[in-house]
Every structure is written in structure tokens, then in C-alpha cells.
Amino acid sequence: MLQAQAGGQQGAAAAPMVETSLLSGIALLGDLSETELTALEQACRYRRFAAHEHVIERDSQNHDVFFVVRGRVRIVNYSVQGREITFGEVGEGGYFGELSALDGKPRSAGVMAIEDSLIVAVPGALFMQVLEKHPEMSVSVMKHLADLVRTGVDRIMDLSTLAAHNRVHAELLRQASTQMTNSNAAHIEPIPVHSNLASRVSTTRETVARVLNDLARQGIVERTRNALLIHNVDRLRNIVQEVRG
Q: Residue 98 burial (CB < 10 Å; 0-12/13-18/19+)?
């Protein structure tokens, strides 16, 4: 057992005791030996965050890297008018905050828990030491960052060239591609909230609702209690490709 350490910027107090095996579920750390993982756990801070509670703020000077042991968080920024802009979500086994650990600069975005979450904070300097010792981890982080860049480029192109309803189509296709159940169907869970989809593609909840209703009438999507089912990913892909050219 490992005594949870106090600290961090926001959030409720951590549970008094935390199992040292919590980090064993983090894919990035899978190549660490048991001894290395235990040493890393002993240097971490464990924090619990309630849904809608902020984990880190944009422009903060904290350089920790955060691992999601339980729950889910959203990477967000806010416009001058207060409109939320969503960049992505990180679920159990994922991590965030590596940019500030790598370059030592302030946070480029904020992070908010979207459900009750247990987050492990690793000091940025220690994270860098682990990367230096384990080249395979460094490659994994680089591939992750490359994927973020590619996704960002695609979203910039969509925002610059597509109409609002087509941007919703493109975002649904992006989410479907990561949660495929077979070659032509996807199961998006948790179910996308209209306001979240709208903030991802810079449109309104009303536009998102109209697009989803239209796709449902065509039999392409189906909304269930807990998930959005994409019954025909190929057809959705064709809709997106037709407008992208």
C-alpha cells in the first residue's frame, strides 16, 4: 500500500490510502519493471476529481504529466466570450500534460474531469528521466504527439473549408474510426453530448441536433441510452469525402 500524497492545484483531497498497483493499467508504462513502477508510484501525487471539476488550468506553470487511472477528462480552452472549445478526451489508461513536461512552457489548454476521476500526477522532470531511460516509451510519446498533430491539421482544414453540418459529419467519422465494431459499424460510447460535439467543430447544439436527426432518418446512426451507433460508416465517410473533394 502507498500513502496518497497531498498537493496539486485543484480538486478534492485524495483517498488516504492508494494501492501501488494503480499505474499497472497505464499502457505507456507497460515496459517498466515492477521495481521501476513502484519507485515511480512513490513519487506520484494521487488526486480525485469530481465531474466538471478542473484538473489543470490553461497557462498554469505546473509541468506534471497526468495519468488517468479511473474516469475521463476533457481537454478544453475557452474563447474571450466564454465559449468552450473542446480538443479531445482522455479515458482510463491514457495520459495528458506531456507538452509542458517536454518544453517547460505553460499549459496550452485546460483539463476538466467529465466524470468522477482518479488522476496520478508524475513530476515532469521524473517523467523526462523515465523517457531517457526507456527509448521505447519515448517513441510511444512521439507517435502520440504525431497523431495529435495530424488530427489537429485535419480539424483546421475542416474548420476552414467545410460548412457547419459537414464539420459535424467529419467529427462523427473521426470518433467512429476509433470505436469500430466491424468493418462498417461503430459504437461511440459514452454517447456524444450535443454541446460537446458543437464545441469541437465550432457550431451550435441546434446544428448538431439537426445533423443527427437527419442521419438517423437515413438509417446511418441510431441513438441508444448509452451510445451512438453508426450503422453505416462507409456511407458517412462518403458524405465527408464528397464535400472535402
A: buried
